[in-house]
Design brief:
By secondary structure, the protein is an alpha+beta fold. The chain has five domains: about 180 residues, P-loop containing nucleotide triphosphate hydrolases (Rossmann fold); about 80 residues, Translation factors (Elongation Factor Tu (Ef-tu), domain 3), CATH 2.40.30.10; about 70 residues, Elongation Factor G (Translational Gtpase), domain 3 (Alpha-Beta Plaits, 2-Layer Sandwich); about 110 residues, Alpha-Beta Plaits (2-Layer Sandwich), CATH 3.30.70.240; about 110 residues, Elongation factor 4, C-terminal domain (Alpha-Beta Plaits, 2-Layer Sandwich), CATH 3.30.70.2570. It is built from 14 helices and 31 strands. The strands form six sheets. An eight-stranded antiparallel beta sheet has the order 11-10-16-7-8-15-12-13, with helices on one face. It has a six-stranded mixed beta sheet with strand order 2-3-1-4-5-6, with helices on both faces. Strands 21, 22, 23, 24, 25 and 26 form a six-stranded antiparallel beta sheet that branches. α7 crosses α8 and α12 runs antiparallel to α14. The protein is globular and about 110 Å long.
Length: about 600
């Protein structure tokens, strides 16, 4: 085993798309962890198909890299690659807790962006040693002096410590290795103390059960040891211990300061909790490691299997996903239109999309999500306060004193060229400007207060569109404020469809209702009778579309003659259709729900 003074635990943090995964690739390549037979792909640590397709990191991943320094000593570098998107900042916080240092990556052409600042503050809160790294120095648009100025002026870090690299070409990576060895402190913790290891991630393997990812702070964990999870009290015998390289590498034992994995034949998923502490059952630690803050979901949606017989498989898929994604929250739910399902909480819309794709791919299920909603506070006249995230739980308007919705502080950094378009977009989303600061001659920082519900629907996409991809966006939830909230129901042939109900701001209701009605009109097939599709608030219809009936030409056999014969046949047909409408059921196909619920709201251009 490598002595503790030669270990370094660090993570790579940065704004989305600043080159974290590419830099991790270069580290792995330099350490020759692959055999050279085509194993090394781009984004080698991004092992989910969805991560490769989208070009983003969703799960933080760890790898142990051996490095021989210029002083001749062999170091063990434990690297954790983290996501950059704001929806996965919880993953970043978990990765940070298992490290002593962080590489803060800054794109030489883009400079400091919103998520760069957010991740810096998170690393500072955990007391990490931070090394600023200027990446993409090979780009023609790279502006290194400007990036150095921003490191000093915007981040308050020492620009002389900054390491200039190109993760793409590998230039400067050797200097970065030396900086890691020099600046990041070695871990502390006694190997002869009682075992104390923090679980920072885990995943399910169908053959070996749960594989637990942990950071050992005190003591030693080895094969055959009897361990206990301090949160659940469950006791298991360790079957395998090892480190992460491109595959799991068995070591037999790991001591204080190491990052690795263990298996113990754990089949009961509920026994494992990210943030729990592992200790020895016969020689336990006196107190657990400081865990993670319970994450609070901000976006809520219900999941239903398209085939109602798949309910048990969906439950199993969500439980396994929960093991790997501690930020997912769920409870049982049911709908008259869609049957049994689950009400789930997510950290944002991208998180929702990723969960949906992972369930469909990893479990092979066809599923349906209802319209995303946020958690509203509803104050009743009798003094009660309800927290409502499901439109079906919204009380009768006569009982409500007032409603409140969550507000966020949005931090947007943009080149000043796009300032006008971004201000217009924020105003359209009911945003109130709190501040506007010029960071330098070309870049502006905007701070807006706006409702979270407005950000759910294509705000991020439209922000990227109006700024041609140059604006960066980060937000935090601040408080709840009064709002004029209404429940919008969708009626098909006069019958409400519960899965399509939404809670909306009153001024947006007509626009939102029109979109839903138009989409349903295109997707519901024609029947033998006319079908009205209506959006309603209480008893008021605010939008309507009509699906025309199939109509047989009953006058085809009438050649000439008295017009009253034709009228009589048409009246008879009309009566028949009226009677059919009273007893006929409208079949709403699944693709109609998908059309309304899967695609995001279209916006006024």
């Amino acid at each position: 085993m490598v002595a503790q003074k030669f270990k370094r635990n660090f993570c790579i943090i940065a704004h989305i798309d600043h080159g974290k995964s590419t830099l991790a690739d270069r580290f792995i390549e330099k350490a020759r962890l692959y055999t050279g037979r085509g194993e090394l792909l781009d984004q080698v640590l991004d092992n989910m198909d969805i991560e490769r397709e989208r070009g983003i990191t969703i799960k933080s991943q760890a790898v142990t890299i051996p490095y021989t320094a210029k002083d001749g000593n062999v170091y063990e570098l434990n690297l954790v690659d983290t996501p950059g998107h704001v929806d996965f900042s919880y993953e970043v916080s978990r990765a940070i807790s298992s490290c002593e240092g962080a590489l803060l990556l800054i794109d030489a052409s883009q400079g400091v962006e919103a998520q760069t600042l957010a991740n810096l503050y998170m690393a500072m809160e955990h007391g990490l040693e931070i090394i600023p790294v200027i990446n993409k120095i090979d780009l023609p648009s790279a502006d290194i002096p400007s990036a150095l100025h921003q490191i000093d002026h915007d981040l308050g870090l020492d620009p002389d410590m900054a390491v200039k690299v190109s993760a793409k070409t590998g230039e400067g990576v050797d200097n970065l290795f030396e900086a890691i060895v020099e600046y990041i402190p070695s871990p502390t913790g006694k190997s002869d103390a009682p075992l104390k290891a923090l679980i920072f991630d885990s995943h399910y393997d169908p053959y070996r059960g749960v594989i637990v990812h942990f950071r050992c702070f005190e003591g030693e964990i080895k094969t055959g040891a009897e361990i206990m999870f301090m949160n659940s009290g469950a006791v298991y015998k360790v079957e395998e211990v090892g480190i992460f390289q491109l595959d799991f590498v068995k070591t037999g034992a790991l001591e204080a300061g190491s990052v690795g994995y263990f298996t113990a034949g754990i089949k009961t998923i509920s026994d494992i909790r990210v943030g729990d502490t592992v200790t020895l059952s016969y020689h336990p630690a006196s107190e657990p490691c400081e865990g993670f803050k319970d994450v609070k979901p901000v976006v809520f949606s219900s999941i239903y299997p398209i085939d109602s017989n798949d309910y048990e498989e969906l439950l199993d898929a969500i439980e396994r996903l929960k093991l790997n994604d501690a930020s997912l929250v769920y409870e049982k739910d049911s709908s008259a239109a869609l049957g049994q399902g689950f009400r789930c909480g997510f950290l944002g819309l991208l998180h929702l999309e990723v969960v949906q794709e992972r369930i469909e791919r990893e479990a092979g299920l066809s599923i349906l999500f209802t319209s995303p909603s946020v958690k509203y506070k509803v104050y009743l006249k009798n003094g009660e306060v309800l927290e409502v995230d499901n439109p079906l739980d919204y009380p009768e308007p006569v009982k409500i004193e007032h409603s409140e919705e969550p507000y966020i502080r949005a931090n947007i950094i943009t080149p000043d060229t796009y300032l006008g378009a971004i201000i217009t977009l924020c105003l359209e989303k009911r945003g109130v400007q709190e501040s506007l600061n010029y960071i330098d001659e070309k870049r502006v920082e905007l701070v807006y207060s706006m409702p979270l519900s407005e950000v759910l629907f294509e705000f991020y996409d439209r922000l990227k569109s109006v700024s041609r991809g140059y604006a960066s966006f980060d937000y935090e939830i601040t408080d709840y404020r009064k709002t004029d909230l209404v429940r919008m129901d969708i009626l098909v042939n006069g019958e409400p469809v519960d899965a399509l109900s939404q809670l909306v701001f009153r001024d947006n209701a007509v626009f939102r209702g029109r979109i839903v009605c138009e989409r349903l009109q295109k997707e519901i097939p024609r029947h033998q009778f006319k079908i009205p599709i209506q959006a309603a608030i209480g008893g008021n219809i605010i939008a309507r579309e009509t699906i025309n009936a199939f109509r047989k030409d009953v006058t085809a056999k009438c050649y000439g003659g008295d017009i009253t014969r034709k009228r009589k046949l048409l009246e008879k047909q009309k009566e028949g259709k009226k009677r059919m409408k009273l007893v006929g059921n409208v079949e709403i196909p699944q693709k109609a729900f998908l059309a309304v619920l899967k695609s995001k709201d279209e916006e006024r251009q």
